[in-house]
Amino acid sequence: MKLTFSKMQALGNDFVVVNVCEAGNVLTPENVQFIADRHFGVGCDQLLALAPASVPKADFDYWIFNADGGRVYQCGNGARALAHYVFDRGLVQGDTVSFYTGRDRLTLHNEGDGQYRLVLPSANECVIPYHVNIGEQTLEGSFIDIGNPHYVMFVEDIHAKGHVEIARLLQAHQQFPHSVNVGFACVRNRTQIDLRVFERGAGETLACGSGAIACALAAFEQNLVDERVDIQQAGGRLSVDCSQSQDALYLTGPASFVFEGTLSL
User: Fold this and answer.
1) Is the same domain home to 142 and 240?
2) Domain extent for 101
3) Higher model confidence: residue 26 or residue 171?
4) Domain containing 11 — which CATH number?
5) Which of 36, 139, 146, 196 could in theory staple to 67 by disulfide, Cβ–Cβ 3.0 to 4.6 A?
6) Is residue 44 part of a domain?
């Protein structure tokens, strides 16, 4: 069958968007893996699907699949990319859209000039410090669950040798039965953090929206930064507002359309 798709990106975190409302659900794990393959398919970090709303007060359901075919329930960059898709096609009235991920309801605002603000519920779980034993080494970090699990460590150099292996071991660790997104963060000052993220099921990405939120919240809860902080990643900068962290978290950044096409499944 032929599947129409759109390629989107948010700070280099790239996505294939499929409108299930129009195409029907053909997103088996095998099809997702094929579409996400950068050699034989379209190529993406995550596949995003726009589906009919299954709960009240949501405009659409928002399905998220990692490149390995597994479904997850949070992607901040993907939410902004999907919002851009919806607003660009006039699928909602006004400048606000609500998505249901299967676990949480997210609200996004069109800020203009390609910028979108994501409002999501406060963290489901926030454990600081959170220790993990790897061999004879004990790691100290922060475990933050905002619809997907993150383990954030504050380091002096986010590009230090050994981070790739540490991320691999953490993602396979028994303390994280569903794996975990691993972030290495360096606080530059009260309003800026550098961040590098290894996403479960996708590997290292140029940017991770939920990782930026988890990083900002972990730093804010330890009084390392102010309530509003910029998170710099390889793909660019995101702004996070933790001022109402007990009720909601805010993520602002860009998203854009790349191309569209048709794929044979």
Assistant:
1) yes
2) 2-109+255-264
3) 171
4) 3.10.310.10
5) 36
6) yes
Take residue 250 and report the two structure tokens written for it. Answer: 């805010």
Which comes out higher in pLDDT, residue 22 or 214? 214
Q: Is 242 in the active site? A: no
Q: Do 236 and 260 sit in the same domain of this protein? A: no
Is 116 within a domain?
Answer: no
In a domain, 118, yes or no: no
208 tagged catalytic: yes
Tell me the two tokens of residue 108.
């996004």
Position 246 confidence tier, pLDDT thresholds 50, 70, 90: confident
pLDDT tens string 166-207:
999 999 999 999 999 999 999 999 999 999 999 999 999 999
Lookup: tokens for 242: 């933790």
Catalytic residue among 21, 44, 75, 215: 75
Residues 76 and 178 in one domain: no
Domain identity same for 141 and 227: yes
Q: Are residues 138 and 98 part of one domain?
A: no
